[in-house]
Design a protein that fits this description.
By secondary structure, the chain is of the alpha+beta class. The chain is built from 2 helices and 2 strands. The chain has one domain.
Amino acid sequence: MRYIYIALIVAFTALVLMFKVQNFETATVTFFSISITLPVALLLIGVYVLGVVSGGALLALLRSWVSGARARE
């Protein structure tokens, strides 16, 4: 079973590296008056990380609201 996990990790890493190598084009993102130029792969990784962080924060907020509402009952 350990070898299956290792093979899955190696395959996933290879896919991520292939994605990064094939997406070296740059994209410019403008927010208000700030603009930044990044490779597409880095931009997608950054958007993914921001989504994970904001989704986790929203989930934690909702859980605290539910537990606070249950405590008042």
